[in-house]
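Cation efflux protein transmembrane domain-containing protein, pasting as requested.
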Amino acid sequence: MAAEGMIAVTATVLAGSVALLGFGLDSVIEGLASVIIVWRFSGTRTLSETAEARAQKAVAVTFFLLAPYIAYDAISTLASGEKPSTSWLGIGLSVASLIVMPLLGQAKRRLGKVLDSGATSGEGTQNLLCAYLAAAVLVGLLANTLFGLWWLDPVVGLLVAALAVREGMEAWRGEECGC
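Structure tokens follow.
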């Protein structure tokens, strides 16, 4: 996830893509959620219901961290008409993430059920969100590259922000992702 985030941010700097920025920030947030899960299952917290509840809320907060900045950047980009450049690096990264992240997310969600850990399942949902985001970013990047539909990139960013808020609310309530 760290490599994914660094590549996405590098591609963002090169191309000026709102969707790629959201993708990169999502990778950072996924990493934070992974740290929360490691915290949750270390030391005396292993069997603690209180630690599980705190971890679940903390994972939910990670979803909320992504939305405001991406929404602001997307709206600003739409208002200014700033067009992203073609990003072959971003396209390649999106394809790779679209392949890997669903596998990782489903594995973490299965593990969450085995451990009876909503926090672990929520962290798996983070990975699934990453896969959805990769698909949306790929559509936006290809639409810009092939058809000049520059505005689709920030629109994808807005959709990502909305999805992050929805998933954060579900995680906060302890619900499984409706993915």
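Note for the archive: Helices lie at 2-15, 18-40, 49-80, 88-115, 118-147, 152-173.
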